[in-house]
């Protein structure tokens, strides 16, 4: 009777072990469903969700750091046609995106519209120098007028330049170059980012994800349009992806992320680079590929971004984007800092540049489960083009079209320690706890099942041997 009880107990133990193991196995898909359901609920852009609170106003402090290029040999360039030699000065750091979104309006097609207020507050503690530092740089009015004024009227421009005692280069403070100064030629305020404070980016219309979480934060319209009008091509005019502050949840690192930037007047894609541990949170780092600004020779998709074969060396120039079509015709070109991934000729025409992948690339650190961007560095360089002239005195020694680097900026933000801890407590710890519970149940169940099954076989064998004896 005792032997029978022992065998029955071992059988019962094996059954219990199997049930526990099965429960652990069931928890894996069930737990995944629970987690995904919670994320989907909290990722929707509507009042009361985690996503909405972070979406209305940036959770982390956003900074824009500026490095301006100071020309060291203006006289040699003007009188002898020497290549400009520049040295970067900075950073000059400003706090931006500190204002919450305005005019938030929900629409019946599951989109939400808003305006993004723009402002900048100088932070001297994070800057190398003051806003009153002087910089020798390109004369924005001369370079702009050279491109905008038809060549038959360049004689008129020559008179204006001489009458205002202007030149190809000028000396201005950092504050004037960035935010504006009264220009003697055009009789208006000119600046690299003028006007800025008190202006808006948008209107934006983005999907709120209520009907389809895979579309949350994706831009439906910008300034009321579903596509751009800057480029003479349907592909280049597409508005793809989000504004990069967040992406739809459940990010797949095998697929690129798409984003639209009004700063460069186009959409781009970012590809997975590596997994990074950010304050205890594993994030996917996505970065722009060199092909983003490659010449049409290497990336045919970029052909529609080539606006002027003459200034782009017959569309073979790599690493720059002519955005004059969205800047009222001004000869403004966007690149990565120091012409990273650009044609060698760009750094031969202007000396003193030293591109570095680590310091000059653009990247986004995205938490894969939620799609939230927890850290990013958007790096852009602003350049203007000028060229030779037989009429305009200050351009007579210029040998060829030259892209002059004016400033490069690094817009960056990283979640703070408090937000990182909250993120771990509310999301990561729950996921880890569920995974541990799954592993424990599965492991204990399998061990109990195997031990009981083996013990049962041993007991039964001994019982059979004793009966034969």
Automatic annotation (TrEMBL):
Q: Which residues cross the membrane?
A: 7-28, 440-459
The subcellular localization recorded is: Apical cell membrane; Cell membrane; Golgi apparatus; Membrane raft
What is the protein named?
Platelet glycoprotein 4
Q: What Pfam families does its record include?
A: CD36 (PF01130)
Q: Which UniProt keywords apply?
A: Cell adhesion, Cell membrane, Disulfide bond, Glycoprotein, Golgi apparatus, Isopeptide bond, Lipid transport, Lipoprotein, Membrane, Palmitate, Receptor, Transmembrane, Transmembrane helix, Transport, Ubl conjugation
PANTHER family assigned to the protein according to its UniProt record, in alphabetical order: PLATELET GLYCOPROTEIN 4 (PTHR11923:SF12), SCAVENGER RECEPTOR CLASS B TYPE-1 SR-B1 (PTHR11923)
What reaction(s) does this enzyme catalyze?
tetracosanoate(out) = tetracosanoate(in); (9Z)-octadecenoate(out) = (9Z)-octadecenoate(in); (9Z,12Z)-octadecadienoate(out) = (9Z,12Z)-octadecadienoate(in); hexadecanoate(out) = hexadecanoate(in)
Main localization category = membrane
Recorded GO cellular component terms are: apical plasma membrane; caveola; cell surface; Golgi apparatus
Family, according to the entry, reads as follows: Belongs to the CD36 family.
- In terms of domain of life, where is this protein from? Eukaryota
| UniProt-recorded Gene Ontology molecular function terms | low-density lipoprotein particle binding; low-density lipoprotein particle receptor activity; scavenger receptor activity
Q: Which cysteines are joined by disulfide bonds?
A: 236-304, 265-326, 306-315
Kindly give the membrane topology term recorded for this protein: Multi-pass membrane protein
Source species: Amphiprion ocellaris
Q: Which terms under GO biological process does the entry name? A: amyloid-beta clearance by cellular catabolic process; cell adhesion; lipid storage; lipoprotein transport; long-chain fatty acid import into cell; low-density lipoprotein particle clearance; receptor-mediated endocytosis
């Amino acid at each position: 009777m005792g032997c029978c009880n022992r065998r029955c107990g071992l059988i019962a133990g094996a059954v219990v072990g199997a049930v526990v193991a099965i429960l652990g196995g069931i928890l894996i898909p069930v737990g995944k469903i629970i987690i995904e359901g919670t994320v989907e609920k909290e990722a929707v852009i509507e009042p009361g969700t985690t996503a909405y609170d972070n979406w209305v106003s940036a959770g982390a402090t956003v900074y824009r750091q500026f490095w301006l290029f100071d020309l060291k040999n203006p006289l040699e360039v003007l009188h002898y046609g020497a290549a400009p030699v520049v040295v970067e000065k900075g950073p000059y750091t400003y706090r931006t995106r500190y204002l919450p979104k305005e005019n938030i309006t929900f629409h019946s097609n599951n989109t939400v519209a808003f305006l993004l207020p723009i402002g900048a507050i100088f932070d001297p503690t994070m800057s190398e120098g003051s806003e009153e530092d002087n910089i020798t740089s390109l004369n924005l009015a001369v370079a702009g007028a050279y491109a905008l004024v038809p060549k038959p009227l360049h004689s008129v421009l020559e008179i204006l330049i001489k009458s205002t005692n202007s030149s190809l280069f000028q000396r201005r403070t950092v504050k004037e170059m960035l935010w504006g100064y009264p220009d003697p030629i055009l009789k208006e305020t000119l600046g690299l980012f003028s006007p800025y404070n008190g202006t808006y980016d948008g209107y934006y219309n983005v999907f709120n994800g209520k009907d389809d979480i895979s579309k949350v934060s994706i831009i439906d319209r910008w300034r009321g349009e579903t596509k751009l009008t800057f480029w003479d091509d349907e592909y280049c005019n597409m508005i793809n992806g989000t504004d990069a502050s967040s992406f739809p949840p459940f990010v797949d690192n095998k697929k690129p992320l798409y984003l639209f930037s009004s700063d460069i007047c186009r959409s781009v894609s970012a590809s997975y680079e590596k997994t990074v541990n950010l304050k205890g949170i594993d994030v996917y780092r996505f970065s722009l590929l060199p092909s983003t600004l490659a010449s049409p020779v290497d990336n045919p998709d970029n052909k529609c971004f080539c606006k002027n074969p003459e200034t782009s060396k017959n569309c073979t120039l790599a690493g720059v984007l002519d955005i004059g079509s969205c800047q009222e015709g001004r000869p403004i070109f966007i690149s990565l800092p120091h012409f990273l991934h650009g044609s060698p000729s760009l750094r031969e025409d202007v000396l003193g540049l030293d591109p570095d992948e680590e310091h000059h690339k653009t990247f986004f650190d995205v938490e894969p489960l939620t799609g939230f961007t927890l850290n990013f560095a958007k790096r852009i360089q602003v350049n203007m083009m000028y060229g030779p002239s037989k009429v305009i005195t200050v351009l007579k020694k210029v040998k060829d079209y030259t892209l002059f680097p004016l400033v490069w900026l690094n817009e960056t933000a990283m979640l703070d320690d408090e937000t990182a801890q909250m993120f771990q407590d509310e999301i990561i710890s729950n996921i880890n706890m569920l995974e541990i519970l799954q592993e424990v149940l599965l492991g204990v169940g399998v061990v109990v099942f195997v031990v009981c099954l083996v013990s049962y076989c041993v007991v039964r064998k001994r019982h059979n041997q004793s009966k034969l004896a």
